[in-house]
Amino acid sequence: MINSETYKFYLQDLCAVLKEDAALAYLHRNESEMDQGIVYGYHHALTIIKNQFEVFGIDAKDLKMNDFNPDDLLYDNFTYPLSDSVIELDKRGREIVRKPVK
């Protein structure tokens, strides 16, 4: 049987990956309707996750989701600092390059 700490770390990592991927998708949101739809998909999934925290009595802070509001993905001033990397656009301004923070 897997202990509860393993589940907690799994959920922390899953939430971190989803937040980062949502932030990356947000950068491409104006390239096509499909890209905008991807952002809406992340919004929907992350909203469900945060709502389920309340249902199950989980503190969002325990899973490091207290710093993220999925509704912000719907506005033009969305920003989300990535803790382990910096997002930059390549020279063509299209592809995202992840660089580790030094």
Descriptive overview:
A hairpin with a 6-residue loop joins strand 1 and strand 2. This protein has one domain. It has helices at 4-27, 33-56; strands at 85-89, 96-100. It is elongated and about 45 Å long. The protein contains two helices and two strands. The chain is mainly alpha-helical. The mean pLDDT is 80. The protein has a two-stranded antiparallel ribbon.
- If you compute it from the alpha carbons, what radius of gyration comes out, rounded to the nearest whole angstrom? 15 Å
* Unreliable residue stretches: none
Domain module tally: 1
- Spatial gap, N to C terminus: 38 Å
Q: What strand order characterises the main sheet?
A: 1-2
Order of helices and strands: HHEE
Tally of helical runs: 2
User: What's the story with the biggest beta sheet?
Assistant: 2 strands, antiparallel
Short characterization:
This protein is mainly α. It has helices spanning 4-27, 33-56, and strands at residues 85-89, 96-100. It has a two-stranded antiparallel ribbon.
Reconstruct the topology from this structure.
Elements: H1 4-27, H2 33-56, E1 85-89, E2 96-100
Antiparallel strand pairs: 1-2
Helix pairs in contact: 1-2
